[in-house]
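Q: Hi! First time doing this. I have a protein sequence and I read that you can turn it into a structure. Is that right? Here it is:
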Amino acid sequence: MARYTGPKTRICRIFGEPILGNGKYLSKNSNPPGQHGPSKKRKAPGEYALQLKEKQKAKYTYGVLEKQFRKTFEEAARIKGVTGENLIKLLEARLDNAVYRLGLSPSRPGARQLVSHKHITVNGFVVNIPSYQLQPGDIIGIKEKDKGNTAITSVFRGKNAKFSWLDWNETEMSGTFVAYPERESVPENIKEQLIVELYSK
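A: Yes, that's right. Below is the predicted 3D structure, encoded as structure tokens:
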């Protein structure tokens, strides 16, 4: 299963943000990676470079490689509405992202692993496809025999209240994908319009 397995801190330094959830070293060294460090005078990036960087940020944030990201964009373009906002909605509706947002895992890579190792169910059926697209009303849960597994449940932190499109049931250890989120509710710092402009060239 294709995914990024390289150094996470290096990616965080490229964008100057903890997009992979590992930003503790940014306070020590926030310069972009490279042998010249802060001493090398870097020229201002052009329009294409800014658009490409924004696409790369979105891909690393959601753990999606190019082919899958392009397919998601094409699907967003087909749906009625603003393409950029549709793209963010589809990325947020991925099963691994919903597992992360619900607090079942402290990171998206960890959520992806939970899904691919068959610990997660959707509407009572085991789903091991991280990119599975959720629909409003879908119920995400833990496989019954894993509910007593402390290695899995010990990392639960519960849903963050600011994610209004998800509803967490502590008793049942399950969450509901209530609706596709509105763009202003998604906290990720992504300028999706630049991605649309890039793919429109």
